[in-house]
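Need a sequence for this fold. Nothing fancy.
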């Protein structure tokens, strides 16, 4: 069996094709990175922050859930526009015990705690931007 060798021209052509492919992959990854979402917060951090004199909005979901992705993007935008709001996201895929601790039946679930740490609102499903705005206004975030 004869060894297969590329000519310098063919070798250079193949390298250029690989560079183009790599650039395409990087571009696609960058486009997906523009779809920002809230970062995961551990249960212990949420527990420490609730009831500290400010209302707290808690989103409980998973990266595999379509409605959770929608809420994550929407809440990310709210958190960037209102950095003083206490908004947290807990991922039940990474910590399954959270579902039990918060009595979660379905996701996405949103919970609002008042400044004293009392649960004052709970919703399952997605919320529109207008609904979220009204919620943040009602509970004086």
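Here you go.
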């Amino acid at each position: 069996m004869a060894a297969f060798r590329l000519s310098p021209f063919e070798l250079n052509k193949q390298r250029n094709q690989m560079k183009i492919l790599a650039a395409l992959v990087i571009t696609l990854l960058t486009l997906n990175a523009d779809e920002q979402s809230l970062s995961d917060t551990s249960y212990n951090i949420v527990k420490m922050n609730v009831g500290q004199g400010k209302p707290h909005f808690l989103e409980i979901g998973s990266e595999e859930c379509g409605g959770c992705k929608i809420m994550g993007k929407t809440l990310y935008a709210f958190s960037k526009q209102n950095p003083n709001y206490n908004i947290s996201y807990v991922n039940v895929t990474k910590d399954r015990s959270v579902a039990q601790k918060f009595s979660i039946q379905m996701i996405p679930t949103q919970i609002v705690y008042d400044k004293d740490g009392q649960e004052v609102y709970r919703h399952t499903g997605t919320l529109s931007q207008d609904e979220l705005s009204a919620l943040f206004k009602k509970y004086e975030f």
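For context: Strands lie at 56-61, 86-91, 109-113, 119-124.
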